[in-house]
Amino acid sequence: VESMDLVREAINTHLPSDIRCLDIVRTPRAFCARTSRDRVRYQYMVPSFLLYDRKEVRELFEKHKCHKNGRDFNDPLSPEEVDVLRPILAKYRATPEQVSKLRDTLDMFKGTQSYHNFTRRLARDDPSRQRYIVAFDAQDPVVMEDGTEWIPTQVTGQAFLLNQIRKMISLAVDVTRGAAEKEILTEALSDDRDMNLSIAPAQGLFLDMSIFQGYNNSKKGDPLDWEDSTSDAPAIQRWKNFKENVVMPHVVKEEANDGNFIKYLFLQEYIYGQKNYKLDREKAKNASEENVPEN
């Protein structure tokens, strides 16, 4: 163990500060980290201001003359407008009722369901549309260094489609804030419905953990067990420290620099709209091209 720690430390001396080797474990020569894992967990950080009262947030946008007409959908707000809106939105705090509703909504994704509406160009009879979600949870809100409150969410599944998690988050947030009914989410997961779903910003998403339960049970090598975040194991403590002090602050810093979530909230309120949820595939495609292109 000591020799592996020396190797890990030596590797880290050659890496930038935002890339770290957190543990080294011996495995068989045929081991592949991607194919040997049986589950994967992602984290998506949701700024609480996405749950802002819809009437009040529209009044806020309009008070500062952030109107729909003449906007570039790829970059709808100017840096000056974002700078004015940011300190106001940063003060928002999600209520316990909102967090509870978000948790209930995310829980609806659990199990094996059809996700053809949560990715690109996938037919509703394509076998790959079926995905198994083990858990989807919202943690307690945390106030980051810049004063903005964020809600970390974690989704665990076997494998995910392109953009699936970001579209799941977008719809779950819309349900929580009252921009869509829960029935819309149920319909979006149905095999017989085609819907155009908007997509949440990429910057809130990162890989949190690869889980190797099957590999560990096979006893082919030393266990790869970093899943228990409450463990005092040194590798897990290094992982928690890196996530909390490097990865999560990076997400917050990106938002402070770019205001992507503020722009996303504007698009959801003024451009996307609940009417798009019920469009058929052809109309949804056209609406997506005319309104909010995916990133």
Structural commentary:
The chain is an alpha+beta fold. It contains 11 helices and 6 strands. The chain has helices spanning 2-12, 33-36, 54-63, 79-90, 96-107, 164-176, 182-188, 213-218, 234-258, 260-272, 281-290, and strands spanning 39-47, 111-114, 130-138, 142-143, 149-157, 205-211. Strands 1, 2, 3, 4, 5 and 6 form a 6-stranded antiparallel beta sheet that branches. A hairpin with a 5-residue loop joins strand 4 (142-143) and strand 5. Helix 5 (96-107) packs across helix 6 (164-176). The longest helix is centred in the C-terminal third of the chain and has 25 residues, at 234-258. It is globular. Mean pLDDT is 90; it is low at 287-295.
Key terms:
295 residues, alpha+beta, six-stranded antiparallel β-sheet, globular, disordered C terminus
Uncertain ranges: 287-295
Mean pLDDT, nearest integer? Answer: 90
What overall form do the CA principal axes indicate?
Answer: globular
Largest sheet: 6 strands, antiparallel
**Rg on CA atoms, Å:** 21 Å
Total strands: the figure is 6
Residue fraction in strands = 5-15%
Fraction of helical residues: 40-55%
Report the span from N to C terminus: 43 Å
The secondary-structure class comes to alpha+beta
